[in-house]
Each structure stands twice: as C-alpha cells, then as structure tokens.
Amino acid sequence: MNGRGSFLGSIPTVTKNLLIINVLMLIATSVFRTKGIDLNEWIGLHYWEGSKFNVAQLITYMFQHDGFTHLFFNMFSLFMFGGLLERVFGSKRFLFYYISCGIGAAIVQELVWWLTWEGQFALVDAQGFVALRGAEAVAYGVQHGMMDSFFNSMITIGASGAVFGILLAFGMVFPNMPLYLMFIPIPIKAKWMVLGYGAIELFFGISGFQASVAHFAHLGGMIFGFLLLLYWKKKGVIGGGLY
User: Fold this and answer.
1) What are the distances in angstroms from CA 139 to CA 48, 104, 135, 220?
2) How far apart are CA 45 and CA 56, in angstroms?
3) What is the DSSP code (8-state) at residue 47?
4) How far apart are CA 10 and CA 117, in angstroms?
5) Per residue in 49-91, pLDDT tens?
6) Contact in structure between 190 and 173 (CB atoms under 8 Å)
7) Distances (CA, A) of 103 to 166, 177, 184, 201, 221
C-alpha cells in the first residue's frame, strides 16, 4: 500500500486527476453500455449542424475513449510527458494548456467536417452500391429530411488532440532531451520526434489513411498549443528551454 501511495503521490496533481478521470469515464461508459446507454452519444463531439451537438462537447469529448487500448496510449503519453510539463508550467497553467489544446483540436475537427462532409455524403441502393453522390445526393437528402441523422453520425472522442499538444510542448520546452522510441535503438531528440509526429499526422490526414482516426484534430491540438506557447513566451510567462 505504501509503495502504491508513493507512486501516486509522485505524479503532479492535475496530471494524476486527468488520468483518474479518464479511467473512471471508461469504466462508466462500459457500465452504462450494459444498460443500453451510449455515453458517446451524449458527451462525444458531434458535428455542429447535427441536433445532438452542444457546446459542452468541445470539452467532454476528450474524456471519452473507444476502449482500453485507445485510453492506454493516450494516458501513457500524458503520464510520461505531462507530469514534467506540469512541474514546469505549474498546475493551473498546465490544466489551461491541456484543455485549450483539446478545444483547439475539436475546433479543427469541426472545421474539417464542415469542409468535407458533402464529399462524404452518398446514397446507396438496395444492393449497397452508391446511387447518388455529391450535390445530387445532398439535394435528395435535404428534400427527404436525411441530413440530421447523417450529421449526428459524425462523432469523435478521445484525449489525443490534448495529448498531441502535450507532445508539442515537451518538444519545445525540452527540445534536445533524448527520447527512445519502440523498435528504434538510438535516441531521438524531442524536437525531431515532435516534428516527425506532426508530419505523419499531416500525411495521414491528407491521404485518408486510417480514415477513422481524427488526424487533423491531432494537428489542431499541436497548432493551438504552439500558438499558446508562443503567446506565453512573448509575454514572458514561460521561458528557459522553450525552443
């Protein structure tokens, strides 16, 4: 018990509470699902033109995850990099940064949906083949009241946008810190790792690879984090190792 308490006590307050809240939310989601209630429909981020959207989802979506693996990788990154950043920024500023990156990721995702939804909307026939696509499909969908259900099907969840903001901050505050990645036996400086992650997400987003993953939301978290860090740097709020 003492060892466990010591381990939890070593994690800064905000990072620790974010980890706990996300784990509890995954448990709650599983419990509610056994009762026929899908929490994702309530607190996941929906497209703004759908009837299921509300502004609170810009925050609540980042505490929802699609299973243990999704949660584990996000929380592992938060644990590895967030604690050190919280010590540098202070708890209040770190929490503000985390939430801001998550909201930024949500805004970028909404923008991407807004710019691309017409190309995604298509009508299929009884055999499952695409019958109408593009402007004709949209006109038909509007005429027959099909758009709201389509908009409501556009949903994203997860802390990845906020976590990518954390990775960006780590790379800027500790640019030359050596990091070891799985399957790569040599250290990589944090700044190059962050640039690599950003390039990969941009490529995946543009190419449509892993279309079920919100790659542009990840980039949104990094972009908003970058702008916030630059603002703080200009104001003299943070400095030191900021690259």
Assistant:
1) 20, 32, 6, 31
2) 9
3) P
4) 45
5) 999 999 999 999 999 998 899 899 889 889 988 998 999 999 9
6) no
7) 13, 28, 33, 18, 8
For every residue of 154-210, DSSP letters joined together read -EE--SHHHHHHHHHHHHHHSTT-EE--TT--S-EEHHHHHHHHHHHHHHHHHHTTT
- Dist. CA 121–CA 141, nearest whole Å: 9
Which residues pair with residue 188 across a beta bridge? 179
**Torsions phi, psi for 147 (to 5 deg):** -70, -35
> To which H or E segment does residue 130 belong?
strand 130-133
Residue 132 parent element (H or E)? strand 130-133
pLDDT at position 206 over 60: no
Q: Which two tokens mark 7?
A: 């381990």
- Quote the tokens at residue 230: 């630059």
SS3 content of the chain, % helix, strand, coil (to 5): 65, 5, 30
Least confident segment among 4-18, 40-54, 153-167, 203-217: 203-217
The candidate with the shortest Cα–Cα distance to 65, out of 160, 152, 129, is: 160
Q: Which of 51-60, 116-125, 143-152 has the lowest mean pLDDT?
A: 116-125
Q: Amino acid identity of 96? A: F
Q: Quick one: fold of 2-116+155-235?
A: Rhomboid-like fold (1.20.1540)
Closest CA to 110 of 233, 230, 239, 220: 220
Sign of torsion, CA 61 63 67 73? positive
Asked whether 209 and 201 are in contact (CB, 8 A), the reply is no
H helix or E strand, kind and range, residue 21: helix 13-34
